[in-house]
Specification:
- The chain contains two helices and eight strands, in the order H-H-E-E-E-E-E-E-E-E.
- Strand 2 and strand 3 form a beta hairpin.
- The chain folds into two domains: 36 residues; 86 residues, Immunoglobulin-like.
- The longest helix is centred in the first third of the chain and has 18 residues.
- The radius of gyration is 30 Å and the shape is elongated.
- A four-stranded mixed β-sheet has the order 1-6-5-4, with no helix packed on it. Strands 2-3-8-7 form a four-stranded antiparallel β-sheet, with no helix packed on it.
- By secondary structure, it is of the alpha+beta class.
């Protein structure tokens, strides 16, 4: 009986004290906190948002519709390099003259999004339209190469 009581007491003590592995893990996490509390590295000077995007596949290629409120054509950059489609839109904050901001619910920032496209696309045939804060990209597929008969030569 005494052995059982001692075993129960040891089990209770073990449950109260965390294991050495748990203590080491806790110390490691506490050591990481100061760097994380600073908010980490900022790579942009203002807020950056992911625009909502719909992508449709058609018989001739893709259509991308991206929601970019406040972006004007001169603040928009769309690139396709090595199958990576990049969309970057800069929004100019407009404050009416003679007014000072008292309360804000809408945060102004830039938009950035990247996609990796599968397949071959005709980068020279991409068409882009920006209307009412919506960007529409028509990305045509590259034409398939025509079948070619390969002539076989034999050494003479």
């Amino acid at each position: 009986m005494a052995r059982q009581e001692r075993a129960k007491a040891q089990d209770k003590d073990a449950k109260k004290q965390p294991s050495q592995a748990a203590q080491a893990n806790q110390q490691e996490n506490e050591a990481k906190l100061p760097a994380e509390q600073g908010g980490g590295e900022r790579t942009h000077d203002r807020p950056m948002f992911l625009p909502r995007v719909d992508i449709y596949e058609t018989q001739t290629g893709l259509v991308v519709a991206a929601d970019l409120p406040g972006v004007k054509p001169d603040g928009l950059e769309v690139t396709l390099e090595k199958r990576v489609l990049s969309i970057y839109g800069r929004v100019d904050e407009e404050v009416p003259e003679g007014y000072s901001l008292v309360y804000r619910e809408y945060e102004v920032g830039d938009f950035e999004r990247q996609f990796t496209l599968s397949g071959d696309f005709d980068i020279n045939g991409i068409e882009a339209n920006l209307k009412d804060g919506m960007l529409y990209l028509a990305i045509p597929r590259a034409p398939e190469p025509e079948a070619k008969r390969i002539q076989i030569r034999s050494p003479s």
